[in-house]
Each structure stands twice: as structure tokens, then as C-alpha cells.
Amino acid sequence: MYKLGYIGLLPSITFANHGSMVLRVDIKKGVELLNNGVIHIEYPGLQYALENAIKQKRIKVSLNPEKADAFIIAVRTSIIMTNTSHVI
Predict the structure, then answer these.
(1) pLDDT tens, position by position, 43-76
(2) Which of 18, 47, 63, 86 is deepest in the core (most CB within 10 A)?
(3) 53-85: buried (b, 16+ CB within 10 Å) or exposed (e) per residue?
């Protein structure tokens, strides 16, 4: 799974805690923090879930992609507010 932000972090930890082997890839610093179990966002139960996934060796965070069966790219969808509508 690519990207470490809020959109990608929650599903990757969930996948890992449900038996999938997950490699998180991003270009940002913070990779080492996540590998050490430090989360940069607040979400109920997420810290425990990450610690569990690391303990089970089901999640790894890296700056470099590796060969995989599937890839998920998680990107933020920007919403521009106007007076009359939402533009996505």
C-alpha cells in the first residue's frame, strides 16, 4: 500500500490485523517511526492495532516498493467548496 497518511494507514493496519502481509511505502519521513510503532494520527484503537500488527510481523513500512501480489494506492481526494456545489 502506498502512502502513509490517514487514508492509507487505517486500511493497511486493518488488513495486517486480519491476516494479510502488508508493506507500506511512502516517500516521507516517518517510515522509521511507524516501524517502531509510533503513529502520527489519532484514531481510537489504532495504536494498539499497529502494535499488534508489528508484533505479528504482518506490517512493514519502507521507502522502497517490493514485489507484491497486489498494490493499493491511497490518495487524498481534495474537495473545493463553492457557493453552489462541491467539486471533486
Answers:
(1) 899 999 999 999 999 999 888 989 988 888 877 7
(2) 47
(3) bbeeebbbbeeeeeeeeeeeebeeeeeeeeeee
Q: How far apart are CA 44 and CA 49, in angstroms?
A: 10
Q: Return all residues near 85 (Cβ < 8 A) that are at least 6 apart.
A: none
List the end-to-end C-alpha distance of the chain, in Å, as a whole number: 23
Record the cell numbers describing residue 79, joined without a space.
Answer: 474537495
pTM of this structure? 0.75
**Spans of all domains in the chain:** 6-87
Which CATH number among 3.40.50.720, 3.10.20.30, 2.40.50.100, 3.40.50.2300 corresponds to the domain 6-87? 3.40.50.720
Q: Are 16 and 53 in contact (CB under 8 A)?
A: yes
